[in-house]
Design goal:
The structure is a homodimer.
Chain A: H1 3-21, H2 30-40, H3 47-58, H4 67-84, E1 94-95, E2 98-99, H5 101-104, H6 107-125, H7 134-148, H8 153-163, H9 170-195, H10 200-227, H11 230-233, H12 239-242, H13 248-271, H14 280-291
Antiparallel strand pairs in A: 1-2
């Protein structure tokens, strides 16, 4: 199966589930539900859910069992984008070529939609799954909450905010990204691994894979920001540079950044060496992340 | 034990736990941690944690076992206040006479602090508790997430937003409050009840108690907003009236609202009739909520 086909299937699987979660709302909160759905179904590639599915499958697990976990990471990712785009944060009017949530609705609704998306991630992760015992489910909640919070994604956003306009070294840039995008990507892989029943050694290898892929994702993002034009990317070209944000191309040069992405890809693939063909989607996904053009 | 003493003990117990949770932060995210602590330790009365403890004790449970649940509801409450005060929401500069989080720090930090407080609520609720099986813990996470999200607190805030400047009937006002404050109060009581090992009948009675107390809390809040002056309350007097927000005194008159609060108190106490003296704190708490002067 091609990676494109795998992405499509993963996307359809998780989108069906997410749609059910947002099928209704209490009277008077319809606009909140709409804003949540608007932000969630915005053409995202569902890379994180796919990492959950592929990690589970790499161990012979059934991806259907990983559906609540996959939905949960996407809900957290979606909420973070809504809040990131707010005027007080990145102040972005467009995402994927469409008005951001606070433009399409209003700022208050965008704040609340983000808040409710986060709560929904945890709520639906507690739904009974026939094959999961509650110990495993609790572990998944904890992994996700840690990856999302003060020791994970939100810390990365705070480090990012503090860094605007300041010269960052490579180590500091990496520390920021390891939190901002890396933590949720690591949580995605580890959740899939736990559902798939990973041994201690398998878990360690998958964590290595996740750290490399998480960073590669960000390096490639920075490269695309330099290379892509507004039309392809759906956001203003060179936005990070304009904000004087530190990036890998700025620190390493464009060629240096490309070399870094390639090295990280090799590291990710190396971590998967003992795994059999069931890990093919994970391998392909790492290649896709580094070679994608948008 | 007087209710004041019980409040003090509950407050100290939960504050110690909360302080440990916020003892450190990743490098670069110190300001985020500070803003979280600033918002969490702002002189709040810890009514919700006390409801968790008192519900657990009403069934003969050990309140120490309810500590993570008590901390979790307070973390959710604290995050909701931070986001509620934002310029795009209620735009409040003061809370309890101190600058609100976005004034003391900045708006972006306040958004992130709220987000991280929410994640922390769920993360620490997953910490192992010796006497809890993971099935119970998972149930607690789900109760809290539901009470906080699209079918709970955030829905209430959205209904509240939509209602500004519009005439609301009594039923609509109640529907708003049942979500905005009631849902988290119900979750607090139900979490305590589950930890205390409530039977189906006990649970139903405690839910009745919680619904009445939750609404009484809001009615009394509206009354205080009319009666109290800025100094006592620490927020601008009559702020709700100024915003043309619907309130119980506006709909029922001041005396009518007081009568309503008294009726709800009686309903709450009636729900507790079959409980023995272990439910005294719950009874006292209901009286305190209706008779408090700030």
């Amino acid at each position: 199966m091609s990676i494109q086909r795998y992405l499509e299937i993963s996307q359809q699987r998780v989108d069906r589930h997410l749609q059910q979660l947002l099928a209704s709302a209490p009277v008077g909160a319809e606009r909140l539900r709409e804003a949540m759905a608007y932000s969630l179904f915005n053409g995202g590639k569902r890379v994180r859910p796919m990492l959950v599915f592929a990690s589970c499958e790499a161990l012979g697990g059934d991806p259907e069992q990983a559906l609540p976990a996959a939905a949960a990471v996407e809900l957290i990712h979606a909420y973070s984008l809504v809040h990131d785009d707010l005027p007080a944060m990145d102040d972005d009017d467009l995402r994927r070529g469409k008005p951001t949530c606070h433009i399409a609705y209003d700022e208050a609704t965008a704040i609340l939609a983000g808040d409710a998306l986060q709560a929904l991630a945890f709520e639906q992760l507690c739904q009974p799954v026939p094959t999961h015992n509650s110990g495993l489910q609790l572990q998944l909640v904890q992994l996700l909450a840690r990856g999302a919070g003060l020791y994970g994604m939100v810390a990365g956003q705070a480090i990012d905010l503090a860094a605007v306009g300041k010269p960052l070294g490579l180590d500091q840039l990496e520390q920021m990204h390891n939190h901002k995008t890396g933590a949720l990507i690591c949580a995605s892989v580890e959740m899939g691994a736990r559902i798939g029943g990973a041994s201690a050694d398998q878990l360690q290898r998958l964590q290595r894979y996740a750290r490399a892929v998480g960073l590669a994702f960000q390096v490639q993002d920075d490269i695309l920001d330099v290379e892509a034009d507004t039309e392809t990317l759906g956001k203003t070209q060179g936005a990070d540079q304009a904000l004087n944000k530190p990036t890998y191309p700025a620190l390493l040069g464009l060629e240096g950044a490309k070399h870094k992405a390639q090295t990280l890809l090799e590291e990710a693939l190396d971590a998967l060496v003992p795994f059999n063909d069931q890990a093919s989607p994970l391998r392909e996904l790492a290649r896709y992340i580094v070679h994608r053009s948008h």
